[in-house]
Design a protein that fits this description.
Strand order of the largest sheet: 3-4-5-9-6
Number of domains: 4
Structural class: mainly alpha
CATH class of the largest domain: Mainly Alpha
Distance between the termini: 50 Å
Helix content: 40-55%
Number of helices: 28
Radius of gyration: 26 Å
Largest sheet: 5 strands, mixed
Shape: globular
CATH topology of the largest domain: Neurolysin, domain 3
């Protein structure tokens, strides 16, 4: 990450202000800003080596002006409204803005700093205004209505029909039918919401970065594997501290809770993680949670819905809250008693090991891991030597080659935003260029937690040219140490496959319009391409292809692979009920029909109480750090992970039947799911691939919950 000499900080601020002032006056040539001209990079990839923070505000201002001019041209066009001069023209408007925003907001998540966060707070209301000025414009909506009324007579393609439908419905759902007074209220709501969701995410990242557990007495680290200790020593060295440092990023947090014998330190780390943005300090998110849900409710009521979930689910496969609760309740019935039995088994095991008292959340990973070793003779440390990152990359890429014929080639001439990022060119089996693909694997203070896929540029077709996407996957995987390469846990391999599945959805996109391309699908369908990839992780034929010991080159032993297979449903009930608890919590917040003014913690406990197998921890709160809901796009949609499990288990059963590398099944999945994006209703696409609607049977059988 670029380090700024603080002695030059004031001069740098002056320089930025001068550039912004001159840019707004039109006195700085756009060519001086790398974001505003042709990129002149391989495949027009973002010129990260030339982009500085001060380039973003001028680029946003200029691209918003260009977008406004493009919309103005549509409004002033006196010709009869047509699909081409209205729907297609609106689809294309703001392309420069989309490019700028794609770069900026990806960096805001992956390589952030205080300056970028300030820019985000400044630019988000402008972006919201730009969007509202489009969807709330009565002249533009009238043009769209004229075309929509004639849709059956226009002889449109399937994609054109979908784009027209999405355009009309999208305008309605964004307030086009509101009165002028209501539109003003809609603007206020959406502007405030854009700021609050940014603040929510920033608070969680700052809370994460603000915590360190420094240990100088090695006796307190009993139970921790050598590799975990080496990573903690390296973290301490980096921070210029003595001993060992642990934090609440996943590669540090999870192994500590799993292996550390010191129960008090496990509890301390657990509470540090669980209390993020719930401490009553400057990074507290309790007010933000309540205000965001209140604003969403206000927006839904304004648009004619009784709650926000009804608004969201109208355009999802679940269709309504009844559909969501039916799914959650059915899986709850299959999972909860299993989860209770699993807890009782681990409690009994802990008691036999000398533990007294009730198992608490900070004991769960520790004793469940020990029981797993006893039952299956398997733990992460046994697997990690065979899961060296570069070999896993080869294995995951090789799976895509086997299934879809695509190839990945490193291109060091494509600029990257951090030296740890690798850029690839992706080619189809016939040599056709498909995508730029970036991988970013390890945690940094400048990167938010978790793992995700996104694109810097989507895919579309225009004038006979297929403009290909630029896709990124971002992780927080175990780092290499001074003596070892990056050795992944099995869970990290599954995460890699998951995000890579999203990436395939983006890279293989084959749509005409960018708004229908790649992952631009219903939220409860988007996890199918990602979650289906996780199925290969427990397939011996797949593991045999890349899992070799990082020192000896020895292939992973067959008996170790069998142990992975035998243990794949270990704690299946608990893992299911955990995901269901998040789904119930999400739905509780977003089925509110009046603002909630009570305590966030009390609301949370009531929302998911039937799923809980542990006593409540007063210092811990999920809602205040639940970025999927309050800083991402999963509000009233978190159930989608469970719905996608139904889909992926059903879909993968066809691979199991025909062969896990069967090229005909893979070609059908590519053609009907991965390439199609949001061009048709997802159930139509799924049935075209599978030949039938999905059922929960395959999921329950796979999880042994039936």
């Amino acid at each position: 990450m670029l380090q700024i000499n603080t002695n030059n900080l004031n001069m740098k601020k002056v320089h930025i202000l001068v550039i912004i002032f001159l840019m707004n006056l039109g006195m700085v040539n756009a060519q001086d800003n790398p974001l505003l001209g042709d990129f002149k990079t391989p495949h027009d990839a973002a010129p990260f080596d030339k982009i500085e923070n001060e380039h973003f505000l001028p680029a946003f201002n200029k691209s918003i002006q260009d977008g406004e001019a493009e919309i103005k041209a549509i409004l002033e066009n006196q010709a009869q409204p047509t699909f081409e001069n209205t729907i297609l023209a609106t689809e294309k408007a703001g392309r420069l803005l989309s490019r700028t925003a794609g770069i900026f907001f990806n960096l805001l998540s992956s390589e952030t700093n205080d300056e970028l966060q300030k820019i985000a707070q400044e630019i988000s209301p402008k972006l919201t205004k730009f969007q509202n000025d489009i969807t709330l414009n009565p002249i533009l909506f009238e043009k769209i209505k004229v075309i929509y009324a004639q849709k059956k007579k226009l002889n449109l393609t399937v994609e054109q029909q979908t784009l027209l439908e999405n355009s009309y419905v999208g305008f309605v759902r964004q307030g086009a039918n509101l009165t002028e007074e209501q539109k003003d209220k809609f603007r206020e709501i959406s502007t405030e919401m854009s700021k609050l969701t940014l603040t929510f995410g920033e608070n969680v990242l700052k809370e994460t970065n603000n915590y360190d557990l420094q240990i100088t007495d090695k006796s307190k680290l009993a139970g921790l594997p050598e590799g975990v200790l080496e990573a903690a020593a390296g973290k301490a060295k980096l921070k210029e501290k003595e001993g060992w440092v642990f934090d609440i990023t996943m590669p540090s947090y999870l192994p500590f809770l799993k292996y550390a014998d010191n129960r008090e330190l496990r509890k301390e780390l657990y509470l540090a993680y669980g209390s993020k943005s719930f401490k009553g300090n400057e990074f507290d998110n309790q007010k933000n949670v309540k205000r965001i849900t209140e604003l969403r409710l206000e927006q839904a009521i304004l648009l004619g819905y009784k709650n926000y979930a009804d608004y969201v689910l109208e355009r999802q496969m679940a269709m309504n809250t009844k559909g969501v609760y039916t799914l959650l309740d059915d899986l709850y019935e299959a999972s909860f008693n299993v989860a209770k039995k699993e807890k009782a088994e681990i409690q009994e095991f802990a008691n036999k090991s000398g533990f007294t008292g009730e198992i608490m959340p900070w004991d769960w990973s520790y004793y469940s891991e020990k029981l797993k070793v006893e039952k299956f003779d398997l733990n992460d440390e046994m697997l990690k030597p065979y899961l060296e990152l570069s070999n896993v990359v080869d294995g995951v890429f090789g799976l895509a080659t086997e299934l879809y014929g695509i190839e990945f080639k490193t291109n060091k001439n494509i600029p990257v935003y951090n030296s740890e990022v690798t850029a690839y060119e992706v080619f189809d089996a016939d040599g056709t260029f498909l995508s730029v693909f970036y991988t970013d694997f390890h945690p940094r203070p400048s990167k938010r937690g978790g793992a995700w896929m996104n694109d810097f540029k989507s895919q579309w077709k225009e004038n006979g040219v297929d403009s290909r996407p630029h896709v990124t996957i971002v992780m927080n995987f175990t780092r290499p140490t001074e003596t070892k390469p990056a050795l992944l846990t099995f869970s990290e391999v599954e995460t890699f496959l998951h995000e890579f599945g999203h990436a395939l959805h983006g890279m293989l996109a084959n749509s005409t319009y960018s708004s229908l391309s790649g992952t631009s699908v219903y939220r409860d369908f988007v996890e199918l391409p990602s979650q289906i990839m996780e199925n290969w992780a427990v397939e011996k034929e797949f593991l045999d292809r890349f899992a070799v010991h990082y020192k000896t080159g020895e292939k992973i032993p067959a008996e170790l692979v069998q142990k992975i297979i035998d243990s794949q449903n270990y704690l299946a009930g608990y893992l299911s009920i955990r995901q269901l608890s998040f789904g119930y919590l999400d739905m509780a917040w977003h089925t509110l029909e009046k603002p909630y003014n009570g305590e966030v913690k009390a609301f949370e406990e009531n929302a998911w109480k039937k799923t809980q197998i542990f006593p409540s921890i007063k210092e811990s709160c999920m809602s205040t750090q639940f970025g999927h809901l309050f800083a991402g796009g999963y509000a009233a949609g978190y159930y989608g992970y469970k719905w996608a499990e139904v889909l992926d288990a059903d879909a993968f059963s066809l691979f199991k039947e025909k062969g896990i590398f069967n090229k005909e099944v893979a070609a059908s999945f590519r053609e009907n799911i991965l390439e199609k994006g949001g061009t048709e209703h997802p159930m139509i696409l799924y049935k075209r691939f599978r030949g039938q609607e999905p059922t929960v049977d395959a999921l329950l059988e796979r999880s042994e919950l039936n």
